[in-house]
Design a protein that fits this description.
With 570 residues, this protein is of the alpha/beta class. It contains 22 helices and 18 strands. Strand 5 and strand 6 form a beta hairpin. It is elongated, with a radius of gyration of 31 Å.
Length: 570
């Protein structure tokens, strides 16, 4: 039998102070004894596991996949003295105090009936009891379920929700990583956020939501808590958990109000840990119509008429976050009927569209836009959508597709519609191929919609000058519009509905032109961007800035938003 060390026996004396330890020493000594006893018991269980010929696990020191706690509830775990801790495919590993126990065997049969393969591991009673605290999040789950059943039309202003989330920081830090993520995701969806940003720094990790294109700080997380959440993000999105020094991409989904929300995840390494951006893709929102997005007048007529194309390239341009993908999906919806074969190449597939064949690009396996497009053209499509034209090979194949009877939809990163042409030429597409392949080019930005709490005020002297210049210009380019200098323009105020920001929602401002023989000739002659712009203006093209100022005059947005989106004020 093992001999336990006795401090009194080792004191070497019997006077008043002999054999006595200071409080701190006594506590440290007791802790050491506890550890020794625990290790001794674990070794006994390890030997028993060898005899039973099953794996041993110290479950208290083993990470537990939080998702499995829904599969085996607290009551089930306590009754059968088991703890599920890992799931790979349909193989579930479970720590059990006694694998031959009747209740344990019953639980195993329940899981097998659900088509799981159960791999039991022997654990000690002590380590099992030490692990039960992972179920402490059950109260949090009840609160989260209440939150997720709230309908969108009953949701309060997002600033209040953000304030609530800030107050929830202490609660979040007490939950499992899985449940903490759930709370943050629900908060983001309730505030109509498009992205969740996790940004680690020296002491804390900042959590921010992008709402209507602008980032808002929600709260800061303790670094230890964030590490667990970061691991959970990587686990859900199928990233490599042991890789932290290179960027990774992944995706996962969750359900809110019975609707599926896809989450596209991007990570990059930083000095203080991995930074994540989670893009929320709510399929329940559906595809928007062009008028809902902000297209109006002749531009709206052009967009609605594109579904009549039999061939040609339609390109949507603008920086990241300018709504290009939303516009492409709206275009796809117009083409989508029983007589039209539509195939998309996306990176990633953001929304599932019934009736459209959607294919996910995978660069790591050689499935690029260029390679995918060559394969797609052998599928006899009428309409092809490519997420983005990034290189000469993709651009050339796209132009060839447009020339051989296909409608080709895609995006490009340029600042204006006219700049798309020199951009494609710089890629290496020859003029004789590009000129007949192009159909319509759209450049767009997103501006925030001013809330109904706005005030109408007289424009400043500098703003007045901009409106006067716009009116004079449009009198020449689009005399049919009959535009006047506005006497008042909206100014953001702020109320509970817009959470004191003055804005609620976003809309498109844009410029576009369609190709004709004159434009084709200018391209073939390698004309400058200035000449191309002049020709487009003669055909009635309204610029981004002018479209923005028109929407300010209509009371839809503010001049500050137009400045922000177009750099007009620079």
């Amino acid at each position: 039998m093992a001999t336990i060390f006795d401090p009194m026996a080792a004191s070497g004396g019997d006077d008043g102070n002999s054999g006595k330890l200071a409080n701190g020493q006594q506590a440290s000594f007791s802790q050491g004894l506890t550890t020794i006893n625990r290790d001794f018991k674990e070794k006994e269980v390890m030997r028993r596991a060898e005899e039973l010929k099953i794996p041993y696990v110290d479950i208290a020191r083993t990470p537990v996949n939080p998702d499995l706690l829904r599969l085996v509830t607290l009551d089930m775990a306590q009754k059968a003295s088991v703890m599920p801790f890992m799931l790979v495919g349909r193989v579930i590993r479970i720590a059990a105090v006694d694998p031959s126990n009747v209740e344990t065997l019953k639980l195993f049969e329940v899981l097998k009936a659900q088509r799981f393969e159960v791999l039991p591991h022997l654990c000690s009673q002590q380590s099992f009891e030490e692990t039960l605290h992972v179920y402490d999040f059950e109260k949090g789950i009840e609160k989260q379920k209440l939150i997720t059943t709230v309908e969108h039309d009953r949701i309060a202003a997002y600033e209040k929700e953000i304030s609530l989330l800030s107050e929830m920081r202490e609660k979040v830090e007490k939950l499992t990583a899985d449940e903490a993520m759930n709370f943050i995701e629900v908060g983001a969806m309730k505030t109509n956020a498009s992205d969740i940003h996790y940004e680690p720094s020296a002491g804390l990790t900042r959590v921010r939501f992008r709402i209507d294109g602008v980032l808002h700080k929600v709260f800061d997380l303790n670094q230890d808590v964030y590490k667990n959440i970061a691991n959970q993000i990587k686990y859900r999105s199928k990233m490599k958990l042991n890789v932290t020094n290179i960027p990774q991409d992944g995706r996962y989904s969750f359900v809110l109000n019975n609707g599926k929300v896809d989450v596209r995840v991007s990570s990059i390494p930083t000095e203080f840990g991995e930074s994540f951006v989670c893009r929320l893709l709510d399929s329940s929102k559906g595809v928007m119509h062009f008028d809902q997005m902000g297209f109006a007048g002749k531009y709206l007529e052009t967009m609605n008429g594109l579904s009549g194309l039999s061939h040609g390239m339609v390109l949507v341009t603008g920086p990241t976050g300018s709504g290009k993908t939303t516009t492409l999906y709206a275009l796809l919806a117009q083409f989508n009927d029983t007589e039209t074969k539509i195939i998309t190449l996306e990176d990633p597939v953001e929304y599932q569209i019934t009736g459209v064949t959607q294919s996910q690009i995978d660069e790591s396996h050689g499935y690029s836009f260029a390679a995918g497009l060559r394969s797609v053209l052998r599928q006899d499509p009428d309409v092809v959508m490519i997420g983005e034209i990034r290189d000469l090979e993709t651009a050339t194949t796209a132009a060839q597709a447009a020339l051989t009877g296909h409608v080709l939809l895609s995006t490009l990163h340029t600042n204006s519609a006219v700049e798309t042409i020199p951009r494609l030429l710089n890629m290496g597409i020859p003029e004789f191929m590009m000129a007949p392949a192009l159909s319509t080019i759209i450049a767009q930005r997103l501006v925030r919609v001013v809330c109904e709490c706005r005030e109408m005020v007289a424009p400043s002297a500098s703003d007045l000058a901009k409106f006067q210049a716009m009116v004079a210009s449009l009198a020449v380019v689009r005399p049919d519009l009959k535009v006047a200098v506005p006497e008042t323009i909206p100014r953001p105020v702020g109320c509970d509905k817009c959470s004191k920001t003055g804005y609620k929602g976003q809309l498109v401002i844009c410029e576009m032109f369609s190709m004709d023989r004159e434009m084709e000739e200018l391209i073939l002659q390698k004309s400058s961007s200035g000449k191309l712009l002049e020709a487009a203006r003669k055909k009635g093209m309204i610029t981004l800035e002018e479209d923005g100022l028109l929407k300010v005059a209509q009371g839809l947005t503010t001049i500050e938003e137009v400045f922000r989106a177009t750099n007009m004020g620079v």
